[in-house]
Amino acid sequence: MHITIIAGTRPNFIKVGPIIHAINRAKQDNNISYRLVHTGQHYDKKMSDSFFIDLKIPHPDVNLSCGGGTQAEQTAAIMIAFEKELTENPCDFVLVVGDVTSTMACTIVAKKMNTKVIHVESGIRSFDMSMPEEINRLVTDSLTDVFFTTSEFANTNLRNEGVPDHKVHFVGNVMIDSLMDNIDNFTKPLLVTENNLLEKAYFVLTLHRPSNVDNPENLRNLLTTILQNVGNNKVLFPIHPRTLKVFNTLNLHFDNLIIVEPLGYLEFNWLVKNAKGVITDSGGITEETTVLGVPCMTLRENTERPETCSVGTNELVGLNTTDIINALDKIVSGNWKKGAIPEKWDGKTSDRIVKILLENY
Questions:
Q1: d(CA 32, CA 34)
Q2: How many structural domains does the chain have?
Q3: Domain of 268?
């Protein structure tokens, strides 16, 4: 069994890394191999040699260099490049993860070339068609042959969409495999000492949704609300360069706000693990905070990961100012829920995936 594994963004590599490690463990006694394809969807200076070394992720066999452009231009570029790649390097399965443009584009190419598709993190739904990721999820799952899911919520979504039960495998969360593999190697950033940060005396803030950061007034209102209601705690904001351009037009000055460049995986997760709480509009971070037992509030009206709310430490707060203030007060006062870890989020998901593939396909 030869599998072509697709990654297009930094989070994708965090997800495929454990799968590759599981394949390497299994191939000693089984006929299984892989080729790692980086579409180049995102260029990230943090995805340097140190990134691969820190997370023990192998370098890609090829980089298709399809970064930049509009979503349509990027989709087209990835499809053209991957069609050539798959023609020159055929395989039994194309394995995609998550919900980025590369996931959808490579799935379409694979199916048009009569190659079966494995989707890891299938069945996730926000039911918000304004999100590009939701469209990517729906298109990918409409073409997928083998579905690996993170929760019973995802299983139900696929069942409701008519996917036969025998194609769906509830295995857990590969993101948590990476988290558990690396938790002992989390690295305390220099900025902690430089800014006199004390453990459990700061918040980590991440914002990247266009509706939250592209509109200057929306960003101003969110930041002002947060920074005025975190008590004596600092707010650490690893900010994307695109968001920084908007932020710099706001002329905001808060003594408790610390702006830093995006951080590497080991440093960022050290900060999350030791934070009083996390404020985010990301989905993946809510999974990590759930396993780390850190209070997390999501500044969105919906989530594709409801198990982080129903089981974990996450709460879907939305964008209402009063609701944000109330949520912050609960964290600051120590009255946040404790949460638990969802079923099968135990660091063994990748081994389950490889075992199922070897036994059933």
A1: 7
A2: 2
A3: 184-332
Verify that 12 and 71 share a domain, yes or no.
Answer: yes
pLDDT reported for residue 56: 87
Give the contacts of 10 (CB within 8 A, at least 6 positions apart). Answer: 42, 44, 46, 47, 51
Q: Is residue 179 part of a domain?
A: no
Distance CA 248, CA 67 (A): 26
Q: Which residues are catalytic?
A: 208
Q: Please report the pLDDT score of residue 54 as a whole number.
A: 82
Tell me: do 122 and 191 sit in the same domain: no
In this structure, are 350 and 320 located in the same domain?
A: no
My answer on whether 225 and 156 are in the same domain is no
For the chain, which residues score pLDDT lower than 50? none
Asked if residue 102 lies in contact with residue 6, where contact means CB atoms within 8 angstroms, the answer is: yes
- Span 287-329, pLDDT tens digits: 999 999 999 999 999 999 999 999 999 999 999 999 999 999 9
Residue 177 lies in a domain: no
**Residue by residue, what is the 3-state secondary structure of the chain?**
CEEEEEECCHHHHHHHHHHHHHHHHHCCCCCCEEEEEECCCCCCCCCCHHHHHHCCCCCCCEECCCCCCCHHHHHHHHHHHHHHHHHHCCCCEEEEECCCHHHHHHHHHHHHCCCEEEEECCCCCCCCCCCHHHHHHHHHHHHCCEEEECCHHHHHHHHHCCCCHHHEEECCCHHHHHHHHHHHHCCCCHHHHHCCCCCCCEEEEECCCHHHHCCHHHHHHHHHHHHCCCCCCEEEEECCHHHHHHHCCCCCCCCCEEEECCCCHHHHHHHHHCCCEEEECCCHHHHHHHHHCCCEEECCCCCCCCHHHHCCCEEECCCCHHHHHHHHHHHHCCCCCCCCCCCCCCCCHHHHHHHHHHHHC
Specify whether 6 is located in the same domain as 149: yes
Task: Look up the pTM and report it.
Answer: 0.95
